[in-house]
Amino acid sequence: MSGSCADGSGSPEAGTDPSPTSAGIRAAAAQKQLDANSVVPVEGEAPTPRLPVTVDSSDGRRVIVAKADRILPLNGGVAEIVFSLGLGDRVVGRDVTATFREAENLPLVTKAHDVSAESVLSLEATVALADTDTGPAEAIDQIRDAGVPVVVLKPADELADVTTRTTRIAEALGVPTAGESLTRRIRDELRAARAGVPEGSRPKVAFLYMRGSAAVYLIGGEGSGADSLIEAAGAVDAGMSFGLDKPCTPITSEALIKAQQDVILMMTKGLDSVGGMDGLLAVPGISQTPAGTNRRVVDVEDGVLLGFGPRTPLVTDILVDRIHAG
């Protein structure tokens, strides 16, 4: 999972009706798809990679990919893209952040969030896909030294990164046409979701990243990842509105009161970790905000909210509906 505060798709077809009713219908369908915890490949037959290709890796290397019959994505968002491209039957393993149904029975190659080089090499992958923050670096070097091409990508931290990463992954795997189809689908779905924003509605939304058991309480600002989603959903990022220029800042009651958010956005496990709605309202400052007074909290599953992958349009559908609800 990506996102600066943190440790898709099958959306309804693009429509033209931006009414609240259609937004509600889209959100209900999106939630059903997220509850199914499944990704949807692009239409048509599974693509056949045309290889070899030489691609630029975000670690400054030029990487030659000769085979893509045994693909190993070392990031959950990357895995979603690979499966959505129609190449899921070629994936041989997963990391801990790949939690969607199609990947759940694949061998795990991470311990906590660290890649195990031994586990990767035992799967005889012919290409690995990683993020610049995938590590430890020694493990990535060991994988590469064993002859496995490793294509490194910049982490996805905002909405615009979804199609960029899709294009790069499709090119690295020799399926650029499938990449074009998937990026077109994602753009159409995002456009349809944003059409549901009610005219004149600009609520303030604060993204709170909380892990109660670890005493982590943060409010999002510029570059949190959530700021991009909040903007796409036709709202104002409350942290940015009063000058938070860092992705995340420790929460204070003064900051919460100053933000005066109308809605609070959280990850589902984060909300659970503080005791649900009642526990959240006990956090100093929360009950003194419009969101707290009106119990306006929107939570989205942890692995999806800041995943910035093919299921991101589903998240946007849900945010457009719930953020602007009465």
Give a verbal description of the structure.
With 326 residues, the chain is an alpha/beta fold. It contains 14 helices and 13 strands. Helix 1 (20-36) crosses helix 14 (312-323).
Write the layout of secondary structure elements.
Blueprint (H helix, E strand, L loop, with lengths): L19 H17 L16 E4 L5 E4 L5 E3 L2 H12 L22 E2 L2 E2 L1 H6 L4 E5 L5 H9 L4 E4 L7 H12 L3 H19 L9 E8 L4 E5 L5 H7 L3 E2 H4 L6 E3 L2 H7 L3 E5 H6 L2 H6 L8 H4 L3 E4 L1 H4 L6 H12 L3
Parallel strand pairs: 3-6, 6-7, 8-10, 8-12, 12-13
Antiparallel strand pairs: 1-2, 4-5, 8-9, 9-11
Average residue pLDDT: 92
Radius of gyration: 20 Å
Distance between the termini: 31 Å
Number of strands: 13
**Biggest sheet overview:** 6 strands, mixed
- Quaternary structure annotation: single chain
Structural class: alpha/beta
Give the percentage of residues in beta strands. Answer: 15-25%
Bin the helical content: 25-40%
Quick recap:
Helices cover 38% and strands 16% of the residues. With 326 residues, it is an alpha/beta fold.
Question: What key phrases describe this protein's structure?
Answer:
single chain, 3-stranded parallel beta sheet, globular, 14 helices, alpha/beta, 326 residues, 16% strand
